[in-house]
Amino acid sequence: MEVKLDELVNPDEVTLEVFSEISDNSKSALITGRQKMLHPNEHKQAPLVSMMEIAQVLDHDYDKLRKRFKYKTRSDENQLNGWIRETDGRIAEYDGKTKARVYYKINEITQIVRAVFPECVRPEGVEGIVVTVCNFKGGVTKSTSTLTYAQVLTLRGLKVCVIDLDPQGTTTKWLTTHYITAQESCHKIFSEQTGSLRDYVQPTYWPNIDFIPSHGILQNVESHFHNLLKSQGPEAVQYFPTEVLKLKKDYDVILIDTPPSLNNLTLSAMFSSDGLVMPLVPSNPDIESASEFWKLYIDTCKVFGVRPDQKLFDFVRILISKSENTTTSNQNMVQWIKMSYPGRVMATEIPKSAAVARAADAFGTVFDEPKELARGAKHSRDQMKTVYCKATGELAQLIYGIWNRQVKRKLYLEQQGL
Question: How far apart are CA 311 and CA 128, in angstroms?
């Protein structure tokens, strides 16, 4: 049998040059896809919010909220008039006479909350709260949870900063419409332990949400970390938390999205945090992975000299995500999670949802301004918005609790003359 030279060539062989072509093509396709998804406006826009939606977010009766706001602001010089949608789709300031649904801009909601629910505003002299969203595994809705938390917290009148430490940058891609460069990420905070986190903060399309973007270069942080650990010891993981601490004066809540591993990025986020939220899918592999995550974190704390009685967090909560309550297996797994973490599982479960997947395909969440949806799809989206409002309400109550204790502690110290 005679073999020809061209028969030895593998047509599927991939060289570095070919791999680069694959990468370039995928990036080009992503840009084109984003333009089509966001057409006709490539730049994302935050939605207007009605008083009824604000009532839903705050879990308050609509009529009572509307009347209370009108009464509380009756003497305000800069009273909010709100906005209406014209028949041609344009937005116009409401004149107070025309019968129409009135909407408010997200940056106006703070004024509403301050007037009606002053107890939901960060007390003067109290710092913001840092919450890390973490899990050992990918695909458990860490980024979705981080973003929806951020959006709903702003609908509660709070100012939020999102820090994306996941090199995959899903949160970053959803919060911006341009490609982030390595210089825009905070990798030097880790690799060189110099500079200020404030230098990396960017505004987003969503009012009252700022963010620090991620980039693939964060993947290189681990190699730098090992060298720093040898030269500095446990102090190697303290620079980032120190910088986060400085941001707590500027924001009510700082949310940190982490990579699906317990590496330096995740550890630094956890050491910076007042609270942890772990989205957890009710499946055997996910539950076992979570258990291993806690064990590895405990071992790491011991290596860093953390005492058994030393406070780590103000709270740790499990957020059940991608739940399918129609199956017996799912129900059994949910009960297993609740038995594993008594008192630490959030009451609200996040169901598996096509609406969430559709929103993600359009580079957003169910709270982003959508294209026109079919009636069934709109109903599904609105259901998920209600679920996320409840889940964020639980997180908000934990945050309010921390603020209240801080205020009482200051009063107690003053009473004791300390």
Answer: 18
Q: pLDDT per residue over 282-294, tens digit each?
A: 999 999 999 999 9
Give the phi and the psi of residue 171 in degrees, each rounded to 5.
-60, -40
Q: List, in sequence order, every residue forming a beta bridge with 280; answer none if it has no partner.
A: 320
DSSP letter assigned to residue 7: G
Got the DSSP string for 111-133? HHHHHH-GGGSPPTT---EEEEE
Structure-model confidence comparison of residues 140 and 159, the more confident one:
159
- 276 pairs with which residues across the strands? 132, 316
| SS3 state at 140 | coil
> What's residue 176's pLDDT?
86
Strand partners, 277: 133, 317
pTM comes to 0.89
Helices (H) and strands (E) in the chain, counts: 14, 11
Q: Is 6 helix (H, G, I), strand (E, B) or coil?
A: helix
Sequence-distant (≥ 6) Cβ neighbours of residue 255 within 8 angstroms: 131, 132, 133, 146, 149, 150, 160, 161, 162, 163
Say how far apart CA 337 and CA 344 lie, in whole Å: 10
For residue 49, list its beta bridge partners.
104
Q: How far is CA 410 from CA 84, 121, 128, 405, 415, in A?
A: 44, 17, 16, 9, 9
Return d(Cα 99, Cα 101) in angstroms, integer.
Answer: 7
Helix (H, G, I), strand (E, B) or coil at 91: strand
Q: Which residues pair with 254 in a beta bridge?
A: 130, 161
Q: 40-78, pLDDT tens digit by residue? A: 445 678 888 999 999 999 988 989 888 888 887 776 666
Question: Which residues, 6+ apart, have CB-to-CB distance to 388 below 8 Å?
Answer: 148, 152, 350, 365, 366, 367
Query: 11: phi > 0 → left, psi -120 to 50 → alpha, else beta; which?
Result: alpha
DSSP string of 311-372, one letter each residue: ---SEEEEEE-SB-TTSHHHHHHHHHHHHHSTT-B-S---B--HHHHHHHHTTS-TTS-PPP
